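Researcher: Here's the sequence for the chain we discussed earlier.
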Amino acid sequence: MSRYYTSEKRQIPSAGRDICLYIFRPTRNRKPRGQTPGILWIHGGGYVTGMAKMIYISRAISLVKKYGAVAVTPEYRLAGEAPYPAALEDCYAALRYLKENAGELGVSSEKLMVGGESAGGGLAAAVCMYARDRGEISIAFQMPLYPMLDDRDTDSSRDNRAPVWNTKRNHRGWKAYLGELYGKEVPPYAAPARQTDYTNLPPAYTFVGDIEPFYCETLAYVEHLRRAGVPAKADVYPRCFHAFDMLLPFKKESRQAIREFERQYLYAAEHYSAGQRDNSGA
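Model: Thanks. This is the structure I predict for it:
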């Protein structure tokens, strides 16, 4: 038990079944309810591995401990259990739960944020696109860290032999996640780099190392957002491999990345909001 936050596990409905959702709340209210961000954080693992409790080594847990945010993270279905769109359905169900229970969770429904690392970053981007197109939930800010966005080889994901994640693992992850779609016409909700319309997506911040496979697709995503008029920024850390901030948190570059990430979050919490639509039909 942490003295900085409480954790709770709930079962929520998703696509005709229940999934586990973990909820993290600060032990002290640092902001009024009307100003407290609610964050959907999505774990990584190349769509084939990982677990919700990876949040304990993620950037999100510090936002709860240090800045009083509320974070939820789903145990979404991995590709071995069910390929696309299962993971997207589960993550969107978690976002819907966050919105519908904002009052009980102590967060502002106008300050809903979505983030994650690696495949979780890819799912974060996909959730933002899906939410925009459905028109049910408005997202104020997105934090897709070194996201897994493109099922096609890029200049940095082709022939990549960097530590942690490389071309071989990348191909394996996409093949499992896309299932029968692999090598065919892939929708942007499955591989967000396939998106052609970036308008009206939430403002974004991310960071990435320059020797990892997702370097090019991360920068391309941010550039597409900027061209569509969406505030977006990416920081690049030289000679850093995939998930360097999680695996080597005491490294100089990791400390710098963490500081800047938190600074960008605090700016977003202060300046960005997104009013929710009334979807009751009244």
